[in-house]
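User: Hey, my collaborator sent me this sequence without any context and asked if I could get a structure. I don't really work with proteins. Can you help?
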Amino acid sequence: MIIRNITTDRTLEAVRVSAKVEWEDSDREVADVYFQTSPDFADFLSVQPHTFLIGGILPAFHHGERRLRVEGEACPQLVRSVKEVVLFLKSWYRIPRPAIVVEVQTRSCLAQPPRPQATAAFLSGGVDSLATLRLNRRECAATTPEFILYGLLVYGFDIAWSPDAPVKRETFDRAMATMTSVATETGLTLIPLATNIRHLDPDVEFWVHQFHGAALGAVAHSLSNRINRTVIASTFDIQHLEPWGSHPLIDPRYSSCDHSILHDGVALSRLDKARIISEWDCALQNLRVCTTNPPGELNCGSCEKCLRTMTELLALGVLDRTIAFGRRPLTVDALSGLEITNTYQASCYREAVPLLRDRGHRAVAECIDAKLTSFLVKRNQPQKTPWKTRIRKADEALLGGRLTRLWRGVS
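Assistant: No problem. I've predicted the 3D structure and written it out in C-alpha cell form, which is a compact way to encode the shape of the chain:
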C-alpha cells in the first residue's frame, strides 16, 4: 500500500485533509481517504502522515500488502508502536502471514515546536463515553491539562459507515443535537468530524476485532494542530478483557511524540459506568447506544445493545426516568428475541441480574438467566471460530493454499 498526496482542501461548508491510497498486492481500487470537519475548526486539522499511517496499516496488513509506504516524515515512536500493534494482532488471532514492512521517513521528535496542550475525548453518546466525561468533570479542574475541552463526534463509523449506504445526515444531525445538550451542560466544545477511513475495509468483524481503535487514533491525529491528548473510552473491563480493536494494550500505541492516546475506564464494569451516569439527568435523556440508527429516534429499543443498556438502567432503578428509549418498558416479551453471543455481553447481563431481583423484577431476571444458560450451552459446543476461519481462507487464497498445515491446530 502506498499513501501519498497528503493535502488539505477548504470549501464554504467543510475543510478536509486527504490522501490517495493505492494498493500494490491486493486487487482493490485506489481510494481517496479523507478526514473532514466544519470551517469553525479548520485550524485544528493537521496535514501530516501520522493520521494515514495509523489509518492505513491494519487494512494493508489484513489484505496481505507486503509494505505500507507513507509520504512525509513521521515520529519514530509512532512508527515503532504501530508495528507492535500488528504483532499483537498476529499473536491474538494466530495470523501466519509476515508482519507488514513500514516505509516512511522518520524525524527527530526533539526538533519539533511545542504544540498547544488540550485534551479531547470521543463522545458518541454511549454509556462508555458519557461515563468517561462524567468522571473527568468530577476529578479534573478546568485549569489542568487533563480536563477534557473537546468532544469528538464522528460521521462515518457507526453512522453511515458503508460505502453503499444512503447518506444518514439526519441521524448525525440528531446525534449532534443531543450531544450539544451534554456539551453545553459540561462546558465542552463539540467538534463534528466525517471520514471514509472505514471504507478501506467495511467488513464488520474486521472493524470490531481489529480496526476501530486505529480509526479512532487516526481521527485524533487529524486534529493535532490544536489537540495533543485524546481519550478513548474502554469497552471491556479488566476482568473481561479479550482481543478487540480498541484495547488498553493497543490504543496507547497510536500515540506519537506530539499526540497521546489514552484508553480510559478499564477498571469499571459496564454496570459501574451505567451507575455513574444514572444520577446525571442530561446523560440519561440524551443516551445514544443504538447502532441501527432508527429514523427519528435515538435508540430502537429492541436491538441487543439497547436491551443490554435498558437492563442495566432497570437494575439501577432509572429506566423510567429516561426518554432515550421512547419510554419502552423492559418486559419478558421485549427480551424474547434477545440472543447473547459473546462473553462480554454475558458478563453485563449477569452483573445486572441480582439487582433486578432486589428491585422486584423477578420475571425479567429469570428470563435473562435463561438466556445466559442458553449462551453457555452453545459456547461449550465444539465449533470452529468464524473469525479465524475467515483469516485462514483469506491467507490460503493469497498464498495458494500453502498455509493449510499451519492452520490445522488453530481452527
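In plain terms: The chain has two domains: 2-264, 289-379. You can pass these C-alpha cells on to your collaborator as they are.
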